[in-house]
Design brief:
Strand order of the largest sheet: 2-8-7-6-5-3-4
Radius of gyration: 22 Å
Helix content: 25-40%
Strand content: 5-15%
Largest sheet: 7 strands, mixed
Shape: globular
Number of strands: 15
Distance between the termini: 27 Å
Structural class: alpha/beta
Number of helices: 10
């Protein structure tokens, strides 16, 4: 029995998206910038996908810029705004941003930009007063992640966005984990830039999008043919984008039912593991992504367990989960997200994440809880099932 519970890392491409990709690859393979019939057929497919992705967040189609994924969308938002200025300005981010935001901002800091990293509470939430107090006369951009991929916490994006908008500052949010799982309406949500990713919503890997509110100016990162409203040069990957479009349209259609189902499974898994004292839940319990469950491991008698250890043991048992900390060159580093939330260095190496999806069943959740308890009991028998 194999159970995949790493849907925040990637989702399996749904058959409808694969069919759309196959159609383009075999029948509609023209260059969408070409003026002849082959090119125009491809251009039609491209614009249809643009409307489908726009529909997922209720945006005008012309505000969707296709990219290679969420990382490029984040980079285009951050660096695209920064490159509008000849002198360094001030930017605000949270201390729990994805590296696709944190790293380009760190680069700007090296170039002389002033950066404020907002603290978060123990649940990973930004305080609205902290944001208001951090705004300066030369603040040109605020970027706050919508749903944190490691601990599942949702930020109060509407309230934060209203504060930023009242000060006339641009507001970006990385909504990669939220789109397709919770409703987003950019006509009502006070955001100027919003990042999306195809492979988080059962589309193919290698495609994403940046929503750019009409009237917002960006300087492109790539020079070339001026595709994507002159903001992202390069011949568009029409097959992948077509799959992205289909996945986005179906996600919008299925969201209400699927989100409710995932919340039920998420809460079921939390409940089944609530009597396991070796697990400390991370992130906000209710202001949370609907598919997301996460914990830190408690030490037992000096044992230095890491999330990576649990991932390997669960994998041997046929259950795919992920560790909350980044592993680089064989060395497990403390999670900057958990450190920002006040966890110790050791616990920041001991995060695990279980994320649910379309194929997850109640039986999968029940079996995963049993297997995880057995793994913990074997590794830390003194405390894993204490009190039962």
């Amino acid at each position: 029995m194999q159970i995949y519970l790493d849907y925040s890392a990637t989702t399996p491409t749904r058959p409808e998206a694969i069919a759309a990709m196959q159609e383009v690859l075999t029948q509609q393979w023209g260059n969408p910038s070409s003026l002849h019939e082959w090119g125009q057929r491809a251009a039609t497919i491209l614009e249809q996908a643009r409307m489908q992705v726009a529909g997922l967040i209720k945006a005008p189609a012309e505000s969707i810029i296709f990219t290679s994924g969420g990382t490029e969308a984040d980079n285009l938002a951050i660096m695209g705004v920064a490159r509008c200025y000849t002198k360094p300005q001030h930017i605000i981010i949270s201390s729990v941003e994805h590296s696709a935001v944190a790293e380009p901002v760190q680069l700007l800091e090296q170039w002389g930009w002033k950066v404020t990293r907002l603290p978060v509470d123990r649940w990973g939430r930004v305080n609205e007063n902290d944001l208001e107090n951090a705004l300066q006369p030369n603040t040109v951009l605020v970027s706050i992640i919508y749903g944190q991929s490691e601990v599942g916490t949702l930020q109060p994006i509407e309230a934060l966005g209203n504060i930023v908008r009242d000060r006339g500052v641009l507001f970006h949010t990385d909504a990669v984990q939220v789109a397709g799982r919770l409703p987003i309406d950019v006509q009502k949500l006070p955001v100027d830039l919003l990042s999306l990713s195809s492979h988080k919503i059962y589309g193919p890997q290698g495609s994403g999008a940046l929503y750019v509110r009409p009237g917002v100016e960006l300087v492109p990162l790539l020079g070339g043919g001026g595709q994507e409203m002159r903001l992202r040069s390069g011949t568009q990957a029409v097959p992948i984008i077509a799959g992205f479009g289909v996945a986005a349209e179906l996600a919008a259609q299925e969201m209400a039912t699927e989100t409710s189902r995932l919340i039920g499974l998420r809460d079921r898994l939390f409940d089944q593991l609530s009597d396991t004292p070796s697990l400390t839940p991370t992130g906000h319990r209710w202001h949370r992504l609907p598919h997301h469950v996460s914990f830190c491991l408690q030490d037992a008698d000096g044992k230095k367990l890491t999330g990576k250890t649990i991932v390997r043991q669960m994998n041997l048992a046929g259950v795919g989960i992920s560790a909350g900390a980044a592993c680089s060159s064989g060395k497990l580093n403390p999670s900057p997200i958990l450190l920002a939330m006040g966890y110790s260095t050791q616990m920041a190496k001991a995060g695990i994440r279980l994320t649910l999806g379309r194929d997850t069943t109640a039986a999968d959740v029940d079996w995963t809880a049993i297997v995880l308890k057995q793994v913990l009991q074997r590794l830390i028998p003194e405390v894993a099932l204490a009190g039962r």
